[in-house]
Amino acid sequence: MVRSYKWQPHDEGRHAIPQELAVNDAGLTLCGIEVTAGPDTWPNDARYWPTCEECDLAWRKSEGILPWPRKGQDAVTASRRPAASDSGSPTDVLALVVDTLIAQGADLEPPRR
Questions:
Q1: Contact (Cβ atoms closer than 8 angstroms) between residue 68 and residue 55
Q2: Mean of the pLDDT values across residues 91-113?
Q3: Helix (H) or strand (E) holding 15
Q4: pTM exceeds 0.70 for this model
Q5: What are the counts of helices (DSSP H) followed by strands (DSSP E) for the chain?
Q6: Residue 77: enclosing H or E segment and its boundaries?
Q7: What CA–CA distance (Å, rounded) separates 52 from 12?
Q8: Which one, of 16, 99, 29, lies nearest residue 56 by Cα?
Q9: pLDDT at residue 98 tops 50
């Protein structure tokens, strides 16, 4: 799958820019900042910069991925998700995968026993 956007460090944050921007091309981030595209190899310190929340939300929407962090489930997602036991772990990876699949339009059925 070809992604529409790629991530680039800018002003001590990570922002999403159009995939087609080549090095030294001017363009806009998803949050509206004008930037000049840099190389795909980042400086080491930039790997730890925070992700721009606006860019992240816009990118996830364009990819059909639910927003992060999850603030709870809406009634539709909760009613369509197959029942799962509470593992007690801080991040329920299976639930995140199922939520993403449902957001992308998958019609999931509960497991057959």
A1: no
A2: 70
A3: strand 13-18
A4: no
A5: 3, 4
A6: helix 75-80
A7: 10
A8: 16
A9: yes
pLDDT, the chain, mean: 79
Q: Which of 31, 32, 36 lies closest to 58, judged by CA?
A: 31
**Cα 55 to the chain's mean position, in Å?**
9
Least confident of 59-63, 69-73, 92-96: 69-73
Beta carbons of 23 and 37 less than 8 angstroms apart: yes
Give the pair of three-digit tokens for residue 46: 């930039």
Model confidence at 56: pLDDT above 90: yes
Dihedral sign, Cα of residue 67, residue 27, residue 20, residue 24: negative
Q: Where are the domains of the chain?
A: 5-63, 66-113
Taking Cα atoms as reference points, which of 24, 26, 29 lies closest to residue 8? 29
